[in-house]
Amino acid sequence: MIIKSNTAKEIEVTDKAFAVEYNESLVHQVIVSEFSNRRSGTKAQKNRSAVSGGGKKPWRQKGTGRARAGTTRSNIWVGGGRAFAAQPQDHSKKINKKMYLAAMRSIFSELHRQERLVVVDDFQLEAPKTKKFVEKVKSMGISSALVIVESFDENLWLSARNLHGFEVCLTNQINPISLIEFENVIVTSSALKIIEERLS
Questions:
Q1: What is the CATH number of domain 2-41+91-199?
Q2: CA 119 to chain CA centroid, nearest Å
Q3: Prediction pTM value
Q4: Percent over 90 (pLDDT), the chain
Q5: What are the structural domain ranges in the chain?
């Protein structure tokens, strides 16, 4: 299939990477996995066995008029342990490489069908100026986009880092969440070829 850049230059890409049917259930599964894998799962509370002290019986069993107590670290005491204390846990969900690549093909294909995939011949700035970056994307009629480039460009990164609704990333940093998070995806022709190789 043929994808045209912003200068009407025709770029030939494989149908396998950019013309597959959208698989909503697979994309949803991969997105859920991505979010789950980002969870730290480090929340922890102390149960009564983890709280220090409390080994001595606070008072004798009978004759005091008070309720019997065996430890000052019971969960009903101030300073005691927590009942049903939260413990660190692993929230990660495994997605194999074949499913992940299939979801990425599906997303890129849908972006192309919806005309949200904008291919440019080049995306460079002479100086780190946010104003220049805004002018460049406005000339394309874009108000929110993920910009994918082949190699790190400091001027481009500095120009876009404080803008809400824009993000610059390399071809090895793209993920399903970032692709669907923005209204458009701007990709350079050289970066598009790298993505094609990885998805084919």
A1: 3.40.1370.10
A2: 23
A3: 0.81
A4: 81
A5: 2-41+91-199, 44-87
